[in-house]
Amino acid sequence: MLGYDWPRLHAALNDLPAALLLVAVLFEVAGLATRRPSLRVAGYWTLIAGAVGGALAVISGLQAEEHIAHGEAVHRLMETHEELALITLGIFAVVAVWRIVREKRMGGTERGAALALALVGTATLVATAVYGGKLVFDHAAGVPTAVLEAEMHERAEGHHHHGAEAADGDADHDAAEPMHPGMSPADSTAAAPSSAADSAGAAHAPGGHTHAPGTPPHKD
After folding, report:
1. How many helices (H) and strands (E) in the chain?
2. What are phi and psi of 50, to 5 degrees?
3. Residue 150 has what pLDDT?
4. Which of 79, 88, 99, 110 has the largest CB neighbor count within 10 A?
């Protein structure tokens, strides 16, 4: 199907109808508040488009359920997501048919009742989206097991390489002799051999103790 399986098709179809239904409700609220017929007309056609698109999204979602490998936790989330989607579609389908039949004869009270039902549908629409997000982002529903395993391996390798680079950077930083305030690069360079000589002297000093620079060696 043009390179799309049912889960991918559902993902492609479910965003726009949800946005259209939400905007339709906002148009209706603005139309009632401002009494501007143009907003009511915009809300009417946006509602129709959203309801039709919502039906396509639900159909593709029902088909996608049969093509997604999942366990018990994902199955429970999927069932809740499906129920909420069907309730949402049912509410907006009723509102859409109501508006188609009664749009030109609606009074203020009837229009307010239709808007109240649409607001209930908006609440279930948001809940549907929340559960859909949990399926994708919390459980990677729709991602084939082989693809998920390969991605986990790549992430682990990427994290390992990042850690190795950070360790190399720390080692390079530690290898460099820090400069004290007021020291020039030449002073820092000159100090390095002196420090090495002092360390060598300390290593060969009897008893492991050190003397201040310039102290003559003592006799045993």
Report:
1. 7, 0
2. -65, -40
3. 87
4. 88
